[in-house]
Amino acid sequence: MRSSHLCSLPLAVMFLTTPSAAQQTTTINGTSGGTTSITVRVTYQQNHGPAAGLRIELLSSSGASVGDVVDSRTTDGNGGLTFDGVDSGFYRIRVSGSDVETTTSDVIAAGGVIGPHRITENMQVRRTSAGSKAEGSTVTANIPEAAQKEFKLGSEEMDKKHWEEAKDHFQKAITLFPKYVEALNSLGLVEIQLKDGEGAVKAFRSATQIDPSLPRANLYLGMFYYDNHQYKEAEPYFLRSAADQPQSAQILTALAYVELQNGETELALTNARKVPALPDHKQYAISHLYAAQALAGRGKDDEIAKEYKEYLKEAPDSILAPRVKDALAQLRPK
């Protein structure tokens, strides 16, 4: 009997029904375990001055692994900000910007049960050398004072969740300085809150053309093109996201699917097979079907069968399970 595989299955269905990486793990809501306020203060290593206008991300953490983005904000003029109402759990803080080296904190225990109710995390970041990010450093150094003022006002409104007011200030900052990458990135985040997908894509694309390393921008653009079946366009953004969050089962699953659609079966197989070793991998059991599809036509029915069996073990009640069982039954016995 010839080998069979699930090339016609709607393989994107499980990924599309999972939460986004920014919402997947922990929400900033109160629980019976108590909540924590985490204040972050960032200074530069070189002069110990406050690091204003940097992106601060609150990340879920599991042991040595860095998880998904829970919340993100921008440091004020004093290099500080506060995440209020953080649920009980383990977290890390990641600091990034166009002219600094991305820096991640040690694990922080938050919540009334496992940690204190108030935490202050003091972090230092190192500016990148002029040679390593010449364009980004030059751009940052040349930002007019008026643009910086608008960005600061926008960041303050953003932290208050005053999205329209924040958008207005960020747009003014960009008008004054079109290459203001932090303002473009923040504008994209605000557009998401305002449910303006077109505006978010425009802002994020402009930001990543200046600084390709922006985590939220890359993830949003990857998912946008993924949802619109533009897999060639989605792939570079997912590659950057996977490099930034190598322990994210969600991102690797999406990347494997995109690579399959782009005819890159070896790359798809490699990334799909990384998923089962990661936390929360059972939510992305469909990665086994991506691996099976990448193996199709190679005379490796035993490996395909193994992937099908693992899928059925992890997702026995899935809407795809009956079709997987049928495909498994059609494989040549070994």
In short:
The chain has 334 residues and is of the alpha+beta class. The protein is built from 13 helices and 8 strands.
User: Tell me, what's the shape?
Assistant: elongated
**Biggest sheet details:** 5 strands, antiparallel
User: For the CA atoms, what is the radius of gyration?
Assistant: 22 Å
Broad structural category: alpha+beta
Can you describe what's shown?
There is one protein chain. This protein is of the alpha+beta class and 334 residues long. The protein has three domains: 109 residues, Alpha Horseshoe (Serine Threonine Protein Phosphatase 5, Tetratricopeptide repeat), CATH 1.25.40.10; 121 residues, Immunoglobulins (Immunoglobulin-like, Sandwich); 69 residues, Tetratricopeptide repeat domain (Serine Threonine Protein Phosphatase 5, Tetratricopeptide repeat, Alpha Horseshoe), CATH 1.25.40. It is 45% helix and 18% strand. The strands form two sheets. Strands 2, 3, 5, 6 and 7 form a five-stranded antiparallel sheet that branches. The chain has a three-stranded mixed sheet with strand order 4-1-8, with no helix packed on it. A hairpin with a 2-residue loop joins strand 2 and strand 3. Helix 3 packs antiparallel against helix 4 and helix 11 runs antiparallel to helix 12. The longest helix is centred in the middle third of the chain and has 15 residues. It is elongated, with a radius of gyration of 22 Å. It starts with 12 loop residues before the first helix and ends with a helix.
